[in-house]
Known about the structure:
By secondary structure, the chain is α+β, with helices and mostly antiparallel strands. It is built from 9 helices and 10 strands. The protein is 39% helix and 17% strand. The strands form 2 sheets. A 6-stranded antiparallel beta sheet has the order 1-2-9-4-7-10. The chain has a 4-stranded antiparallel beta sheet with strand order 3-8-5-6, with no helix packed on it. Helix 5 crosses helix 7 (201-211), helix 6 packs across helix 7 and helix 8 crosses helix 9 (249-260). The chain starts with 11 loop residues before the first strand and ends in an 8-residue tail after the last helix. The relative contact order is 0.13.
Amino acid sequence: MVEIFQNIREIYEFKKPCEELMEFIEFFSESSAAGFDLYFSNGHAHAQMFASYTPTFYINLGSPYVIDLDKSRYSIAADEDILILRNGQVARHILPTDRIFTVKFYPGGLEAVLGLSQAALHDQVIKLHEVLPPVLLTKMKQSGGFEERLTIIQDHLLSSYSKRKQKDHYLKIVNDAIGEYSATGMQLNSSQVAEKLFLTSKTINRYFHKAVGVSPKAYFSILRTRSALGNWLQTHNSFDPWAYGYYDISHFSKDVFKLTGTKLSDHP
């Protein structure tokens, strides 16, 4: 199963974070037994995900599994919990016995909530007990279900965030820049976004490298391609590449291949 091209969310149950964390966390999720039945009946065997620079916790409630980060393969033990950045392509090999609780942060969200910069996480599988208290992870695994686990970890993240409420200035600037880029239809380049925020190109580049671990140009390109690809899958014949700042469909196709390694022609 390939992210965006297919509905990768069919194997999970999802919940949005509380309002105070909504700026930093995209969602909480947990493997769904009913979803697995549909997943395997559709002939899928792994979930392929593209670069998003979204730090993600994988808390293992079940059995061992295998995950690929670009060209490196990692075997995750049944009692092992991990953190990855998703700065490149990720493929998780799915088994019917999987039970995984996931927390997906927005870029910069991990630092805002837990004080951990994502810039140092590139191409690594981090042991989650180095980030979260082991007693918290044990409590989650012994809890009665998804809702209870969500409450346990959300309370911890809220407590951590409340101690760090005086947000770092550069994290706010990065969030504002991403919001400005999205609000203007993803038509602006990084210099134009910087100008709207009364910053220099050098400053906004420095802030993005510190908070996200990549330049604003590279991150904006990922945002634009993912958004445009989602629209292309819905509209196909009526898709307008100009609406996303592309010169033509060929220009758009090149960005899709760069992000996904997949040609549009492979998904008619």
